[in-house]
Protein 1
Amino acid sequence: MSLPTLVVLGDQLSRTHGPLARLGPEDARILMVESRALLHGLPHHAQKVTAFLSAMRHLARDLREDGYEVHYRRLDHPDADDFGTALTAHLTAVGGEAWWTRPRDDGVEAELRAGADAAGAPIHTFEDEGWIVPDAVFDAWAEGRTTLKMETFYRHVRRWSGVLMDDDGEPVGGRWNYDAANRAGPPRDRTPPTRPTHPPDALTREVQADVAAHLPHAWGAPEPFGWPVTRADALEVLDAFLRDRFVDFGRYQDAMVSGERTLWHSTLSVPLNLGLLHPREVVDAALAHAERVGTRPPDGEDDADAATADAATADAAAVPLNALEGFVRQVLGWREFLHHVYRTRSATLRAANVLDAHAPLPPAYWGAPTDLHCLATTIAGLEATGYAHHIERLMVTGNVAQLLGVDPTALLDWFTATHVDALDWVMVPNVLAMSQYADGGGLTTKPYAAGANYLHKQSDACAACRFDPKKREGEDACPITAWYWAFVDRHQERFTTNHRMRMIVAGWRKRDADARAAILARAEATRAAFLAGEL
Ligand code: FAD
């Protein structure tokens, strides 16, 4: 009898969990496909494509070395049009059942089913073991709720998992959330430690050559490439983060520094999204590290009396509670939450556009010159590496697009193409719901919208910008502030019903009518110029 074929997708590259942790070469043959439909659809960043394909080819090589029969369809293979076509051709040739782990992104399961059906092959699917929170736990929590808030889910999961909980069932340190300590602006007195990079080996070089030959319209610089593509690389990224940057992860989580790409962020989204790390092992590693080196009070709340020179030195390696809790919240909270939101609500989210936003994506997003220095530096960094950190995504590229009323789907495509860690399951809720408020607040209590004041506080970009973040009027007033007020004005009816926006709308309405008209006129003129690539 013919062996079954296990399809291994590019975001399921794990041998520590899932079917590859259990099945040996004698149990199944392997099929891996570099789907042209996926790769050609958008001008994906060259480093994003390289990271995914290189990680796939590395896994295929390792499996072959371990005796598996691996059928690998490179992007120039005649059968690699899409997953379904490749699977039909493969099964027609070798027979046997089709096996796969439940895919994360919409559409893939249907493609695989159609492919197996066309070959008349029986199908067996495995549950996706790459998550911490089982579907049933989320579904029971979500049942009957009209809005889903991450903070409520996160507290539920903290209790359910026991992570960062005291023996008496209270959150460690007495609070669920230390975010107030995680909002420092750019540091004046320190530079972030360097992070490990993984220069291309021969296999990655081959991928780079294929990307250059077959995807000439890929966006972004292919070099220098340093993303992790193996399990060993991934573990090194995790270790280096915990060793070098974890202590200041919380404090500078919302800071933006021109020319500094990753600051104290972990860059773990890439190996996590490839499947090279399990989120539970990341959380456990963070907890174990904190246990080993000790924890200290949240930044800004140290007990001054206890801070003798010796204690301060001994304490320097200890992880502040705001960094520990903040990191756990990102992985156990946000990442798990948005996965389940996508799993249960992606179709509704994808269709949502309650703010009726239809403007095209501004040319600056693809690298056209712009005078908005915060945006220019974010895009330049993205172009060079495929990476922007969370606050750049949310409060620079996401914020500016939202204020201008850019079509959420156009923005979704742009985010998907340009970010090295982009997958549909994580982009749809982050871009459409969290960043663009396209669902009208199903996941957030208010839109993440801000004018130049916020950007000036969190970033050093305004200092080198031709616009002045403090001015409200005049040719050198930052247009982002005018766009912010035009956004509030445009949606004032909706926002008066939101308890966190009501006061802002009331403040706007109280302003002198001439002042409001001047701001709106400036917003419209600068918006038109920006959308035309002239600002
Ligand atoms: P850190 O700041 O070091 O955070 C640690 C980890 O927490 C991340 O690696 C990630 O796995 C997880 N995490 C934190 N926030 C989120 C979140 N909102 N959603 C999911 N996971 C989270 N994340 C992606 O993985 N892929 C994307 O395509 C993506 N697109 C985004 C688009 C927008 C508009 C926004 C606002 C956020 C997006 N995020 C995305 C979430 C988050 O910005 C990235 O996970 C993070 O910036 C990756 O960098 P890091 O690994 O250094 O993260």
Protein 2
Amino acid sequence: MRNLKNILVTGGAGFIGCNFIHQLLEGEPEFTGRIINLDALTYAGNSASLTDLAGQFGGTRYCFEHGDICDRGFVDALFNKYGVDTVVHFAAESHVDRSIYGPETFIKTNVMGTFTLLEAARNAWKQGDGVVFHHISTDEVYGSLGETGAFSETTPYDPRSPYSASKASSDHLVMAYHHTYGLPITLSNCSNNYGPYQFPEKLIPLMILNIVEGKPLPVYGDGKNIRDWVYVEDHNRAVWTILHTGITGEKYNIGGENEWENIRLLHTLIDLVSKKAGLDPEKVRGTITFVKDRPGHDRRYAIDCSKIKRELGWTRKVGFEEGLAKTVDWYLTNTSWVDGIRSGEYQHWVEKNYGERD
Ligand code: NAD
Ligand code: TYD
């Protein structure tokens, strides 16, 4: 069992990273160390997701560092200042649609940013500081499945969007740093996450908010693409497990074993949100709008996560019904967080790009 004292979390103001920090500081009593959150606060980073923690733990167990993972001098300074022993690398450009309209930032952050962090970690590790580097990645690196089968850790990489290609590149770099230099790394590839604090450009929060606001519900293509959904806390518990007992140099798939066609998921959400918000579900169904398909839209993802279950004893705790209900409740009650996001640059982007698709 590793003793983690100074954890550098990158992208901790984003969806999964902020949940990770909340879970660690509020829900893991055996963790007594410090978290350093390095985030550039792009459109997807939101310090409002962490304000309560800054008040409760700020300065001692939680430190926020505003900066770019591509800035080597800045990253080196953080390793020195905090004596970082663990890196949990969430920071990325994460939305497939954006990668289609503007791939460059994906290459910069996901490839060059990961490279920069690896170099800084290698430098600190060479000086004798024990550093473990955990890289967070996606099942999308494996490509698209037909009607059967599931991605395992040995499935060959076949990324098909600029997003997944940039994540695949970063995965290869992480593995190369282990094989070439011996840097202690672990890597995880997870399926689609859902839960609180997710930026509402992704399917589930976008649909929840559009249902409540009476806006069109844009379904890409025929709506029959399939995704595997895992509750964000289950993903983060898996990461925590890997940090403690994962084997150096190994990769682990994480998933919900929970496949849903998009259109079926949308009908389920319509029923759930309508019930909680006092809406007529049949009227809401009338706002479903089939729009032009995403270019290169992967048909199906499914994850075989038997390795992490068998070798590290992780299992999913939150069922889909429970997780979706918690998520809908969160978006219906955290209106100031939602309003802060919906009024900004994001809204402008959605209007511009949905215009193009229609
Ligand atoms: P997100 O877009 O919500 O958050 C990304 C965070 O990274 C933001 O806070 C942003 O400000 C920060 N960031 C972006 N560029 C940066 C830079 N150059 N320097 C420093 N910070 C920067 O993403 P997310 O959904 O929380 O995903 C986190 C990680 O998990 C990503 O690596 C993603 O590829 C991976 N992942 C996500 C999912 C999912 O369903 N969301 C599934 C599997 C894997
Ligand atoms: P998304 O949440 O963008 O995640 P990813 O592309 O990484 O899987 O999309 C999930 C699925 O939902 C994907 O098949 C695309 C589809 N989708 C829609 O049909 N409409 C939408 O408005 C969005 C955002 C996604």
